[in-house]
């Protein structure tokens, strides 16, 4: 394609609102343009990269027997109400009314839609297992869209859904999808990890996220330094064993702690280490109040709390709730003398403590020398804290270290979460009605594009992996006003096209410096420059990522390009 005929507007400076490299470079290089907060257009060169990623996804889906379809982006609320997600999905679900005031959602995901289709069309075990997928724009009303394509309100996603006649069959489909996702991200050149994750509003139990390692990732990955174990920090269990303190319990005392609000404030004021204090946080768990108690140096994991209660909703109680129920604000809460209507649960680490400080449930006062079970009762001990670096790996091999990651894919074993609620059944080989067993699988196609740029760039621009780049070759004619340069560049353009090589031809009447800068921004793997030695039939070939360059005869170009991409 001739660059003079394409819409590729480049910028010299980073956009003011672009905080990370992928956002900066995709805008500067003319791949995307923002239309509104969190909403982007993909310009022609950006569309070409999306096509490359989509084609890889399609190939891997088809290899495992998944078939492509397309579902409407406009989903009637009645389907979401069948599963209860109309209320539980939360404020991210974009809802609209038509002229007849009928409620709809803009598709954030399509479990309800595909289940409604399959329950009407699939009746027998002979039609199972079945896996379908689509590549379609999705919509989420993000409170704070940021990081360009990494957190938007409209984004391109591949979502797939499987229907099985047993959990054993689901396990097989899940593994096939897991392997296919691994292949997709490997083919995209990404450094990634598959991590144990939380299913959140999707429902179901077993799930993995595919995380691209990146310092700008919003998720924290906890992984072993010696094994393949990896999990989202929310889901990593703590397997540390705690030995009961050998201290002799002392007398409980109430002391004044004026203006000491944080755990560190109180620890410094009372002169003890952070782990010798108790952190007490009040939560609303499905409309009942629960006080969660951890050591002062640990952080409460609300996902583990939600899973402990198998709850639909977990949120921090309000300060007003705290004062009404317990008589004190957040900085003074503790488990001693808690009213009966508040349940107290504690992390396993708390059970081993003796003589610790905690809030006295009175403004400006704390207890010292508090000991569990003597001074306060705990309804249940459980793993309720976030894992920390240095903790033992849950698989028993090595220690935990942290990395940040960008989520690009997610696979779920949904089980009967949707099919039971929506009465999606089939007749088994004995003629009995059984509930279908489901799985759900998503890849953020546009997020993947951004994640690739986060891992493949330098100070001059993008350095696309070879099979993802918008073009195979960027051909530059440095001075098309000179007949010999234009003639050779035109000849090479035709020769490369006839050889089936995808080429972007910079035929613009621009200065050489502008062309070189734009070429570096675009990140096409190979650049061929027609310049001063055009009259000799000699061009310069440069590898974008390594910077290696050489002069070459025009007649050797096609073979070189083919060999380079095959090697």
UniProtKB/TrEMBL annotation:
<dbReference type="InterPro" id="IPR033730">
    <property type="entry name" value="ProRS_core_prok"/>
</dbReference>
<dbReference type="InterPro" id="IPR002316">
    <property type="entry name" value="Pro-tRNA-ligase_IIa"/>
</dbReference>
<dbReference type="InterPro" id="IPR006195">
    <property type="entry name" value="aa-tRNA-synth_II"/>
</dbReference>
<keyword id="KW-0067">ATP-binding</keyword>
<keyword id="KW-0547">Nucleotide-binding</keyword>
<protein>
    <recommendedName>
        <fullName>Proline--tRNA ligase</fullName>
        <ecNumber>6.1.1.15</ecNumber>
    </recommendedName>
</protein>
<dbReference type="Pfam" id="PF03129">
    <property type="entry name" value="HGTP_anticodon"/>
</dbReference>
<comment type="function">
    <text>Catalyzes the attachment of proline to tRNA(Pro) in a two-step reaction: proline is first activated by ATP to form Pro-AMP and then transferred to the acceptor end of tRNA(Pro). As ProRS can inadvertently accommodate and process non-cognate amino acids such as alanine and cysteine, to avoid such errors it has two additional distinct editing activities against alanine. One activity is designated as 'pretransfer' editing and involves the tRNA(Pro)-independent hydrolysis of activated Ala-AMP.</text>
</comment>
<dbReference type="InterPro" id="IPR004154">
    <property type="entry name" value="Anticodon-bd"/>
</dbReference>
<dbReference type="GO" id="GO:0016740">
    <property type="term" value="F:transferase activity"/>
</dbReference>
<keyword id="KW-0436">Ligase</keyword>
<dbReference type="InterPro" id="IPR023717">
    <property type="entry name" value="Pro-tRNA-Synthase_IIa_type1"/>
</dbReference>
<dbReference type="InterPro" id="IPR045864">
    <property type="entry name" value="aa-tRNA-synth_II/BPL/LPL"/>
</dbReference>
<dbReference type="GO" id="GO:0004827">
    <property type="term" value="F:proline-tRNA ligase activity"/>
</dbReference>
<dbReference type="InterPro" id="IPR036754">
    <property type="entry name" value="YbaK/aa-tRNA-synt-asso_dom_sf"/>
</dbReference>
<dbReference type="GO" id="GO:0005829">
    <property type="term" value="C:cytosol"/>
</dbReference>
<keyword id="KW-0030">Aminoacyl-tRNA synthetase</keyword>
<comment type="similarity">
    <text>Belongs to the class-II aminoacyl-tRNA synthetase family. ProS type 1 subfamily.</text>
</comment>
<dbReference type="Pfam" id="PF00587">
    <property type="entry name" value="tRNA-synt_2b"/>
</dbReference>
<dbReference type="InterPro" id="IPR050062">
    <property type="entry name" value="Pro-tRNA_synthetase"/>
</dbReference>
<dbReference type="GO" id="GO:0006433">
    <property type="term" value="P:prolyl-tRNA aminoacylation"/>
</dbReference>
<keyword id="KW-0963">Cytoplasm</keyword>
<dbReference type="Pfam" id="PF04073">
    <property type="entry name" value="tRNA_edit"/>
</dbReference>
<dbReference type="InterPro" id="IPR004500">
    <property type="entry name" value="Pro-tRNA-synth_IIa_bac-type"/>
</dbReference>
<dbReference type="InterPro" id="IPR002314">
    <property type="entry name" value="aa-tRNA-synt_IIb"/>
</dbReference>
<dbReference type="GO" id="GO:0140096">
    <property type="term" value="F:catalytic activity, acting on a protein"/>
</dbReference>
<keyword id="KW-0648">Protein biosynthesis</keyword>
<feature type="domain" description="Aminoacyl-transfer RNA synthetases class-II family profile">
    <location>
        <begin position="33"/>
        <end position="465"/>
    </location>
</feature>
<dbReference type="GO" id="GO:0002161">
    <property type="term" value="F:aminoacyl-tRNA deacylase activity"/>
</dbReference>
<dbReference type="InterPro" id="IPR007214">
    <property type="entry name" value="YbaK/aa-tRNA-synth-assoc-dom"/>
</dbReference>
<comment type="subunit">
    <text>Homodimer.</text>
</comment>
<dbReference type="InterPro" id="IPR036621">
    <property type="entry name" value="Anticodon-bd_dom_sf"/>
</dbReference>
<dbReference type="InterPro" id="IPR044140">
    <property type="entry name" value="ProRS_anticodon_short"/>
</dbReference>
<dbReference type="GO" id="GO:0005524">
    <property type="term" value="F:ATP binding"/>
</dbReference>
């Amino acid at each position: 394609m001739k660059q003079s005929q394409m819409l590729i507007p480049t910028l010299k400076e980073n956009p003011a609102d672009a905080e990370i490299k992928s956002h900066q470079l995709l805008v500067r290089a003319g791949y995307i343009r923002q239309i509104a907060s969190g909403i982007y257009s993909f310009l022609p060169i950006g569309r070409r990269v999306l096509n490359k990623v989509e084609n890889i996804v399609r190939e891997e889906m088809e290899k495992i027997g998944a078939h492509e379809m397309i579902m409407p982006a406009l989903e009637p609320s009645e389907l979401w109400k069948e599963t209860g997600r109309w209320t539980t999905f939360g404020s991210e679900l974009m809802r609209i009314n038509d002229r007849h005031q009928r409620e709809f959602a803009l598709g954030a995901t399509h479990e309800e839609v595909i289940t409604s289709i399959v329950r009407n069309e699939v009746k027998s075990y002979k039609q199972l297992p079945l896996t379908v997928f689509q590549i379609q724009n999705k919509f989420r009303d993000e409170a704070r869209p940021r990081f360009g394509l990494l957190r938007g309100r409209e984004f391109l996603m591949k979502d797939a859904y499987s229907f099985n006649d047993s959990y054993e069959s689901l396990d097989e489909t899940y593994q096939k999808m897991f392997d296919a996702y691994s292949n997709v991200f490997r083919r995209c050149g990404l450094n990634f990890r598959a991590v144990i994750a939380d299913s959140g509003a999707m429902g179901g139990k077993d799930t993995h996220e595919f995380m691209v390692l990146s310092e700008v990732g919003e998720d924290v990955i906890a992984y072993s330094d010696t094994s393949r174990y990896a999990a989202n920090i929310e889901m990593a269990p703590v397997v540390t064993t705690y030995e009961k303190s050998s201290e002799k319990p002392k007398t409980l005392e109430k002391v004044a702690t004026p203006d000491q609000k944080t755990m560190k404030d109180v620890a410094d004021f009372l002169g003890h280490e952070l782990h010798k204090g108790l952190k007490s946080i009040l939560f609303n768990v499905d409309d009942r109040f629960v006080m969660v108690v951890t050591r002062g140096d640990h952080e409460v994991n609300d996902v583990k709390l939600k899973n402990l209660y198998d709850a639909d909703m977990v949120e921090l109680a309000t300060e007003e709730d705290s004062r009404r129920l317990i008589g004190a604000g957040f900085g003074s809460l503790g488990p001693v003398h808690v009213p009966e209507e508040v349940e107290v649960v504690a992390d396993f680490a708390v059970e081993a403590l003796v003589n610790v400080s905690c809030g006295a449930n009175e403004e400006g006062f704390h207890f010292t020398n508090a000991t569990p079970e003597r001074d306060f009762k705990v309804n249940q001990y459980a793993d309720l804290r976030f894992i920390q670096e240095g903790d033992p790996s849950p698989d028993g091999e090595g220690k935990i270290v942290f990395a940040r990651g960008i989520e690009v894919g997610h696979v779920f074993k949904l089980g009967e979460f949707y099919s039971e609620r929506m009465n999606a059944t089939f007749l088994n080989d004995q003629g009995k009605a059984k509930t279908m067993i489901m799985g759900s699988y998503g890849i953020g196609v546009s997020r993947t594009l951004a994640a690739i740029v986060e891992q493949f760039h330098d100070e001059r621009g993008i350095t696309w992996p070879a099979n993802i780049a918008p073009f195979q070759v960027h051909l530059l004619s440095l001075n098309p006003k000179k007949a010999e340069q234009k003639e050779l560049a035109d000849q090479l353009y035709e020769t490369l096209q006839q050889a089936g090589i995808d080429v972007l031809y910079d035929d613009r009447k621009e200065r050489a410096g502008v062309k070189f800068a734009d070429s570096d921004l675009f990140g096409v793997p190979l650049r061929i420059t027609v310049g001063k030695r055009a009259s000799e039939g000699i061009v310069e070939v440069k590898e974008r990522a390594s910077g290696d360059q050489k002069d070459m005869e025009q007649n050797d170009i096609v073979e070189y390009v083919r060999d380079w991409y095959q090697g």
